Fold these 2 entries.
Entry 1:
Amino acid sequence: MSVFTPVTPEQLSVWLAHYRLGTLVRMQGIATGIENTNYFVTTTGGSYVLTLFEKLTPMELPFYLGLMAHLAQHGIPSPAPATDLDGRLFSELNGKPAALMSRLQGETVSAPKPAHCSELGSTLAEMHLAGQSYQRRLGNPRGPGWWREAAPQVSPFLDAARAALLRSELEFQAQQRREDLPRGPIHADLFRDNVLFVGARIGGVIDFYFAGVDCLLFDLAVTLNDWCVHAGGEMDTPRAQALLAAYHARRPLTAPERDAWPAMLRAAALRFWLSRLYDFYLPRAGELVHAHDPEHFRRILELRIAHAGDVPWV
């Protein structure tokens, strides 16, 4: 279980006394995630998700929690943070900033079909449109600046071929122009385990804690690289076309975005190859923490480089 900061029922009961949400019935650690401590919490007033933030600071949290509240108010199925008796969206629990969110309904889909990808494309576009009116600003925490910082830390663990690939891709991405692309708040981590389906419809989009302001196209590329690939990283064209067509129908993509698309798919693969290398080789102490295999996104990056001229578009 990915629990970095254990919380006892007694500690949580004291903390919950600062909310009008009833008394604690039960709590259960959530087994997924490598960044925060999460529990399912049931009170006499409802069902929630408790998150203790292991890395995010009180200065950063207003952006994330405010973004989720903003999207929920605009009809996006995102978690709605609860406010305590003092009107705060988070407060300290066991030495860490903590927040309580509404628990959304649905199940993850491990083997998505084109229909799932179409539904997701529409929802992602609606998220991007709704985010345009969100006023807080915070840069993408795992954007190009972080790539440049992380690369020297993981390079000593790589063989010559992988180290050369990393250097080459960083040089390529440094030459790309991102300034002319539409920007706004992005989820930046919209993988299959962060979307809940109720039947054919999306019931929840969760885990916004890598969100930040960046190119909207980057968010689309991150999503495609997880939802529209086979096990070996090869692109599934029907799923990719379904995702892109549904997104484009809600938020038409621009000519500069079209030009940037192949490079952006590579950028999205690079970001997750780097972060998985970092988590694998430089892990943080925790209880039974699971780090994802970095090789999956290394293969995706190489495939996006080799087949840059064959990527689907609308």
Entry 2:
Amino acid sequence: METIKLEAGDNKQYAIRAAEVLRAGGVILYPTDTLYGLGADALLDEAVAKIYAIKGRDEGKPIHAIVSDLAMVERYAEITDDARRLAAKLPQGQVTFILKKKAGMDSGIMKDIATFGFRIPDNEFCIEMIRAFGKPITATSANKSGEKPERSVDKILAQLGAAAEGIELVIDAGELPERAASTVVDLSGAHPLIVREGSIPAHRIV
């Protein structure tokens, strides 16, 4: 397991290194604007399967991704007027959108489901990494399924135990401050549906 310490300043070289691991089908542990996440190529079946295995997550529960912008989303999902309006109106990083996937998108996190869930993070390193990789990256929290997410790398690895051996690269930004999770809104149907209320109150969305 390789570990990189993030520091203030230009971390572009670390984003490029993370993209190399992702491109090879590997899994990374990385900091986001909410929690540490488990990252893999969101379009690769084998990589997404590793994420489910590390977390011990029920494969029937969808995993969402981080993307750099709506232009990236357009390759994979049908962007609604509501999605464009809310993405422009609400603070970046605080909302996870679920949209109807495009025809033919049947791999990775979109396998056997009709939707594509994503968030545009408010985190410079994450944006650099996505741009270096060029595709969506899984953004599920780095914890055992059903257990409280920890905010430091050491505690995360301890919680995951032997399953942490599936992680190839750790991006360590120290202990992250406690933040509310993103609000999850499903825009794949006729009307917006709040799946999880988080940092953005429901009344600002529906």
